[in-house]
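Regression check, magnesium ion case 279:
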Amino acid sequence: MKLVTYLQDGAEKVGALTADEKALRPLPFGDMLAAIEAGVEALVPAGDPVSLADVTLLAPIPRPRQDVICLGINYRDHAQEADRYDKALAKERPETIYFSKRVTEAVPPEGSIDSHPGLVQRLDYEAELAVIIGRTAKNVPVERAAEHIFGYTVLNDVSARVLQTAHKQWYFGKSLDGFTPMGPCIVTADEIAFPPALSISSRVNGEMRQNSNTGLLITGIADIIAELSSGMTLLPGTIIATGTPSGVGMGFDPPRFLRPGDVVECDIGGIGVLRNTVK
Ligand code: MG
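Current build output:
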């Protein structure tokens, strides 16, 4: 099932896309977090189909309950380009890099990435597969990790490179308003073989920049859930952004950062295209 959050007549609702993906059928939940807590089996669309032309899609989880948990340098080819850009970013680390991304309001499909003129000089994109936790996860062994996943979506881990590297922690440079485009939908986990091996790419103004496969993660999804849940409770609705492959702006020589007017598309096979414009 492909689930969306949408705005209809000023009200925020959740629904499931129809097979042709031109319409949706409403789900009887107040928001996506309630639908996630209810579980996939409880998601029974009710009511007549509504054309997508008559609604506005929002990010599938417009206001996450907690910060997004992110992985840094989790594709080998991206580790190499990050190292070329700044030795301190990607130097060999034996352990997985986890960091946090604040998101007060996620940017919807077709929404704007705020370039923050005056504050941000090197604005960059990062197409990522995001895992949505469905069941409370604590001390989950690797072999049971998949049972705790509700679904997957596309997330653009927009980054301000100067802020990211100027401060010792990446937090500020990753967490500005308008830095978390997400969507267009959540695909429930039952529709994607585990572990997901999906094409992942990004385009800027139609030009391919990133092109890889989510099967190439250094730390895989089961290991991420097992490791984090060995010490942290992961609640339903938790979003884990699994890292980005090579081809981000800082990876080019000279670097190719985003400018106002640029259109960024993050595309994961089987989920969809997340398209946003820099303003
Ligand atoms: Mg990232």
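Comparison notes: The chain has six helices and 18 strands. Residues 70, 126, 128, 157, 241, 243-244 surround magnesium ion (CB under 6 Å). No diff flagged against the previous build.
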